[in-house]
Design brief:
Length: 304
């Protein structure tokens, strides 16, 4: 499609127009004229070549849960296109039909670009931030809760989010596992059958959106994150050598009203979390979802 061909779109805020710069061509050509009244026609280069488009004018519509002024334009002929542009978002809707309604192919996309500054329309920001925590672990500390935080301009547009795991033993692939990750709660309980000390796990996460850009991000960018499987914890002396106590940075931070605090213990046991402010005063807290897999949920902290 047009947005995968390297076209650049420049927004002229003063004149309320979008201009198109085609590959290997320095000339800016008219793409959209937001000033054109409903029903008026003009020549547009939105599709890369000059075609006549008809303005649908500006209407008020709900886009991603908020009310926006939306300008629409369409081209009618053997091929049919509709574009909608929402203020402060960019291209909010696209529909294309090739041939007749009955026999032709059709494509529809919602919110396919975003304005990140006042000049240029760009793809939506989408990225995986980290995997938390990924580090060498004793075999008897599985299963545990793994968090894979991500960033998206609009989480509603996230399509697929998953973790791919490879289990190796002496350089031999033992098994693979695929986890679907919830975008609203990006945590999974990580466990693989048959793990033994000396094995290692390789991780790679990916996330995609539903935009016409087909954005995708991986973590890590290349290669894999590796975890070595350590011997089980037999006593406290072994734990000092193989596995230490750890309290990790909370996620998210800052937060309102909940945050996740990750920790590691050499043995299972009851967990108490005490939180102090910068003046060394203990804060009253309510803890939920405390578990022995390495995470607790901290909610609604207030001064005692």
């Amino acid at each position: 499609m047009i947005f995968n061909t390297g076209y650049l779109f420049n927004y002229d805020a003063l004149n309320q127009k979008v201009f198109v710069k085609l590959p290997n061509d320095s000339t800016l050509r008219l793409g959209i004229d937001f000033n054109s009244p409903s029903g008026s026609n003009y020549i547009s280069y939105l599709r890369g070549s000059p075609q006549e488009f008809t303005s649908g004018g500006i209407t008020s519509e709900i886009v991603l849960g908020d009310t926006h002024n939306v300008y629409s334009v369409q081209h009618s002929g053997s091929d049919f296109y509709i574009y909608k542009f929402a203020d402060n978002l960019g291209i909010s809707y696209f529909h294309a039909r090739s041939g007749t309604v009955q026999a032709g192919s059709q494509t529809t996309q919602n919110v396919i670009s975003a304005i990140i500054d006042s000049l240029i329309y760009n793809p939506i920001v989408l990225s995986i931030d980290t995997m938390y925590p990924i580090q060498d672990r004793p075999v008897d500390t599985f299963p545990y809760l793994l968090t894979i935080p991500y960033t998206a301009s609009y989480s509603a547009l996230v399509d697929s989010f998953y973790l791919f795991v490879k289990h190796f033993r002496a350089d031999t692939l033992v098994q693979t596992k695929f986890y679907n990750i919830s975008k609203g709660n990006p945590k999974i309980t990580l466990y693989l059958n048959g793990l033994i000390a000396g094995d290692n796990l390789k991780f790679r996460a990916a996330i995609t959106d539903t935009s016409i850009y087909y954005n995708i991000d991986h973590y890590p960018d290349t290669g894999w994150v590796v975890m070595n499987i350590l011997p089980p914890i037999l006593n406290m002396e072994d734990s000092d050598k193989q596995y230490s106590y750890n309290l990790f940075q909370n996620y998210p931070n800052p937060f309102n009203p909940n945050t996740i605090v990750g920790y590691q213990l050499p043995v299972s046991g009851n967990v108490t979390l005490k939180v102090y402010n910068l003046l060394d005063k203990k804060l009253q807290r309510w803890l939920t979802s405390i578990n022995l897999q390495g995470n607790m949920k901290l909610s609604s902290m207030q001064k005692r």
